[in-house]
Amino acid sequence: MVVIHKKTFLKQEKKYLALIKKGRAFIYPTDTIYGIGCDATNTKAVRHVHVLKQREHKPFSVIAPSKEWILKNCFVNDHAKRWLRKLPGKYTLILRLKNKRAVSSAVHLGDYTLGVRIPKHWFARVAAAYGKPIVTTSVNISGDPYMRTLADVSASLRRKVGFILYEGPKKSHPSTLVDLVSDKKNGRIMKRKK
What we know:
By secondary structure, the chain is of the alpha/beta class. 29% of the residues lie in helices and 21% in strands. It has eight helices and ten strands. It has a ten-stranded mixed sheet. A hairpin with a 6-residue loop joins strand 2 and strand 3. The two termini are 23 Å apart. The relative contact order is 0.25.
């Protein structure tokens, strides 16, 4: 495991995208908090993140490569399109999958709903460059406090990720979940969650 910063990542972006393609989990910054993720189409990698989080029975959200990807792969009604206009931003939109192969079933755990977000942060460009969705979930054991600084990452977790992309302390809160499946007309705002 290596800790890198934005400048190093951007200089060696192909190298780090290749690690993601190989199925490595990694830690990265967003506009809210730090996320732990992997290629959301790689079942083995997604299961590894479930094990790291000790969260094997709850689905994950993804950072979408683009709004076009969301429109192509999810059911988006007129109301959901209004929420989609708020992206990039600090929202995770819960939508029903149209393309059941858009992500590994280990992401949605068979219910075919998917939390999608595009952070208002330079890391969104990484997902766009990668061209596939990236799992996004808070850096912590499920139920424990989430990562705010590098010191919050346990030694055991550090050993099990390919790299940590670090940009200093984060003081924000997880993104706001907007359920556009249960409440198709209004979008039910749920508790904040990464």
